[in-house]
Amino acid sequence: MKEQVSAYFDRAIQSRIQWLQDDFLTKHGVKFGLVRIDEIDAETGGNKWFKLKYNIAAADAQGLNTIVTFGGPFSNHIAATAAACRILGLKSIGVIRSEVNYDNPTLQKAKADGMQLHFVSKAAYANKYSEAFISDLKGQYGNFYWIPEGGDNEAGLKGCEEIWSHCKDLPVFDKNQALYFASAIGRGNTFAGLVNSCPFPNAIGLGFTGFKQGEEMVPILAQKIKSNIQWQVITSYHFGGFGRVNEPLIDFFKAFEKEHQVVLDYTYTAKMCYGIYDLIHNNKIEYGSTVVAFHTGGIQGNKGIEK
Ligand SMILES: *Cc1c(COP(=O)(O)O)cnc(C)c1O
């Protein structure tokens, strides 16, 4: 079934804030809510839906019905793009940084959604945006619209600047109240989009990098951010690196699910939420503060991690 691109992305979906309740938060006097943008769509929802919106609209406007995109073998962006293309009746090709025929639940689902997988070595992947590589792909697959890894382009950022407008029941905050908003950082468009469009002038944005050398994101974000909202990048909750987990993180993930009936993803939101609890524990997020953190989805990736 082919759904119109505009109809698919113009749905007036409003995400709820789920206010978490537990003894720890009560004791520390912190209001902590999760904005459930993951509920926008089971397959494409979370931040990836926002990043695809203007990219797929651009492909549609150019009359191109093949989408090429790029990612690692566990990529949420690959999964979301494949699903969106299936739903919208577009052809999709995923350039995957991996040995030939690597298989895991993410790639199986992408294939089931009709995505053709094009495996390349790490060395070739490093040059994936070069003219030579792109024209080689066009020789093989015909003309296409391509979206960089993670939806990390202008169109992706524009979509992320609409996230706040899809949130319902945003609380009213007075100027004397500390208000933080938080998101996980991958390539940075989600966090930059939230900072650029934050409706609360006194809020402070906290971006959590779940990988090593997270501080390298600061200049990249500074390029993307065009607002006066205060923001900082928090780099210490990487748990060994991108896609890595350890026992404290797994324990936190399980306890969080049990207590709040929310499934996080190990790569991004579990590390962010662990960080938020730890900052509260250390009084870096002070008594009386409110934190709204974005549940950006991506739980499909957990299948590759939960062994
Ligand atoms: C991709 C992803 C992110 C990172 O988004 P960026 O815009 O690349 O920073 C965060 N959370 C989840 C669940 C993701 O899948």
Q: How would you describe this structure to a colleague?
A:
This protein has 307 residues and is α/β, with parallel strands linked by helices. The chain folds into two domains: 2-43 and 157-304, Rossmann fold (3-Layer(aba) Sandwich), CATH 3.40.50.1100; 47-153, Rossmann fold (3-Layer(aba) Sandwich). Helix content is 37%, strand content 17%. The protein contains twelve helices and ten strands. The strands form two sheets. A six-stranded mixed β-sheet has the order 1-2-10-7-8-9. Strands 5-4-3-6 form a four-stranded parallel β-sheet. α9 (189-196) links the parallel β7 and β8 (204-209). α3 packs across α8 (154-160). The radius of gyration is 19 Å and the shape is globular. The structure holds pyridoxal-5'-phosphate. Pyridoxal-5'-phosphate binds at residues 46-47, 76-77, 150, 184-191, 265, 268-269, 296-298.
List the helices and strands and how they pair.
Elements: H1 5-9, E1 17-19, H2 23-28, E2 31-35, H3 47-61, E3 66-71, H4 76-88, E4 91-97, H5 105-112, E5 115-120, H6 122-126, H7 131-141, E6 145-147, H8 154-160, E7 179-185, H9 189-196, E8 204-209, H10 217-224, E9 230-234, H11 247-260, H12 269-281, E10 290-294
Parallel strand pairs: 2-10, 3-4, 3-6, 4-5, 7-8, 7-10, 8-9
Antiparallel strand pairs: 1-2
Helix pairs in contact: 3-8, 4-5, 8-9
The structure holds pyridoxal-5'-phosphate.
Pyridoxal-5'-phosphate binds next to helix 4, strand 7 and helix 9.
